[in-house]
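Q: What structure does this chain adopt?
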Amino acid sequence: MKKETIAYPLVLMLLAACASMATPDGGPYDEEPPVFLSSEPAANAQHVTAKKIVLNFDENIKLNNAFEKVMISPPQKEMPEIKSSGKRVTVELFDTLKPNTTYSIDFADAIVDNNESNPLENFAFVFSTGDKVDTLAVSGTVLNAEDLEPIKGMLVGLYTAGDDSAFYKRPFERVSRTDSRGRFTIKGLAPGKYQVYALADANQNYFFDQKSEKIAFLDKVIEPTAIPAMRSDTIWRDSLTIDTIRKVPYIRFMPDDLVLRAFNETFYSQYLQKSQRPEHKRFTLFFADRNDSLPQVKGVNFDEKDAFIIEASEKMDTINFWLKDTTVYYMDTLALSVTYKVLDSLGAKVPRTDTIFVSPRKSRAKILEEQKEAFEREEKNFLKKAKKSKDYDEDNPPVYVPPVNHLKVNSRNSSTMDVNIPYRIYFDEPLASIDTAQIHVRRAVNDSVYEDIPYVFRQSDKVHREYVIYAEWRPEENYKVTIDSAAFRGLYGTSSDKFEEKIKFRSLDEYAVLLLTIPGTGNNALVQLLRSDGSVLTSQRTENNQCSFYFIKPDKYYLRLLMDDNNNGKWDTGDYGKHIAPERVYYYPHLLQLRALFEYTQDDWDINAPLNEQKPLSITKQKPDKERKKRNRNADRKFKNR
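A:
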């Protein structure tokens, strides 16, 4: 009897466990997108005059990002009203319908079912106000010209060929918008010849009338065509198993491989953004755009003649003015007249003068007060410590002498350096004098003995207060840089203290070498070695289709190439008015895994491969939208429940 009592609940538990394996799952998934049933007017209808279109579907639907995804061509000046209700989508146009014109309403994947959000993909509704429906189409990709990034949401439009000024004057005749891959398709085209443009339309008027708008243009005329073709259609049994691959006939609309390279024209919008005076000794002017020359600065309440040491950024849009005269930098407020170039209404550069006032955060009196308080505090602490000494004489107390304020020598070097990187030091203020005899560069002979070696000491080309030491740095050897006291004197009278730093250079065994042969580049290409995040590490110019990178640390790298047509060492943008395309950019499509002690030779870089397939996805910032997995979930579930 006792055994029966124990066995009964065990049987129930086993039965429950078995039952739980076959719990009802609520029925099959809804995997089918909405089905278009009918419309008013009918699809592909002719002689349409109604401006209200009603589309009917087989189930309740909703619109997903209709404002972003739905595109009407020809483009509408007044925004249409697009809404869904139950099984119906209504589109109401407010512009006057053009005669003898094919209209296309491209929904992309904006129409989804109400339950599972299964999208009805690539759905477009077409009708005509004339006696025929135009059916041709062209497609392609828009990429950012400088880095081949796909551009999402950019307008791509057509004009009938023959009027290059149309892009400036009137809306596109036909239009589309790029998706997350930068892809576009322009539908409803009549036979003919067209010019193709892309536009980041800031004011939504469908033509290029603002210099700040990003644009692209194709430097050839296209002629749409259609040809019969075959494609493979794969039917899946489940997510892992192919059931059938069949050939399906379709009409291929061409060209379908257009690539437009988008760019911003050089847009000069100059003005003085702000001014700052972080300390009495200097003030800084910040401009909105580059300057072709230094602005002219005059003193209103002081004499500006020989009053400054000027430090300008490469574009001269940020400029530091170090005040040389103590009588000037002791002034709490400086009044300045600043003259620089701006564009007038005709696009010509003309002088403009602003009067500004620059003041430090603290007045001179406040700074002197704080310095006095700090001195008294330090003196009090000094005497407090001195009284604790056994040698303290109350009748003859020691006098507090504040520490000497030295000009700081800032090192920008690591203890282990690369042999191709110069030694750099940096100062907090401009230098008034340099005594190079007090600078010593020594190579270690052994652990305790160093020998002097020749060097070159000079100011950096890019940073005013940075200085560089060039020497014959040898791999795996130790060096010591010694700078004696008073080797440098700053603009404001302070001198440097003694400075010493030991450094060692890496072994050649720690580097990789990369040798490239790139047909078609000649001598005017700039090849950039990119870090794994896509940022530029270093660059080399090609010579006879070749370039080399030495002293590369083992890591993962990518390559980008700029066709530097004007040999100015940088990428240059385009100009539509002058019909100048932006300089060409290419990517090596594969990751390079470089290891120490290896010499890599790459000669398989085809810069003529399709541009939209070149940039590796791992460093592409504009990722394609994730595609929704719509089918085979029921088959997968049956497979799992076997």
